[in-house]
Design a protein that fits this description.
Length: 166
């Protein structure tokens, strides 16, 4: 997992060390007004690499109501374009977690795990401009409410094919 903010003074240095498709995804997030983009799912090209753009209007929820997820074919670049705050949970996939729903062989490329209260889970604060890059081994739980109050968010997800980064 990689975490940062497009407004960070080190953005260019942080971006430069990444594979080209992830560099393109982060620059797309920085240069595109996604807070005012129509919601939906869109096919895009990142310097010749086909990717998927999801523009989602969501409301954050208590952690216990959300399922941990992973993807195997795509790297998720998640970005908070507006609203919030939001928190995101994460932990490393060690292959021992109980599957709740497996949709990896569908166009959604997603697997949900059962919530396990004994799993050590990290948390990051997502404020406007914050991005998190989740690789296929990164279990993640997006859209967690910060504190006791739910908040509307404009969540952007750019799905970059894993094989384009190898």
């Amino acid at each position: 997992m990689i975490y940062g903010n497009i407004n960070n003074e080190f953005f260019e240095q942080q971006t430069a060390i990444l594979p080209k498709p992830l560099q393109s995804a982060l620059r797309f997030l920085k240069e595109t007004d996604l807070a005012n983009h129509e919601p939906g799912k869109f096919d895009i090209s990142l310097n010749g690499v086909p990717a998927i753009l999801q523009v989602l209007d969501l409301t954050t929820s208590p952690r216990e109501t959300l399922r941990p997820e992973i993807h195997r074919k795509n790297i998720d670049v998640q970005f908070l374009a507006a609203g919030g705050p939001e928190e995101a949970g994460f932990y490393s996939d060690n292959g021992s977690y109980q599957t709740d729903e497996d949709l990896l062989d569908t166009p959604r490329d997603i697997l949900f795990y059962h919530n396990d209260p004994d799993t050590a889970e990290g948390r990051i604060a997502m404020n406007v401009g914050t991005y998190a890059i989740y690789f296929p081994w990164d279990v993640h739980i997006p859209a967690i409410q910060s504190g006791s109050t739910a908040a509307p968010i404009r969540k952007i997800v750019v799905k970059v094919p894993m094989d384009a980064c190898l």
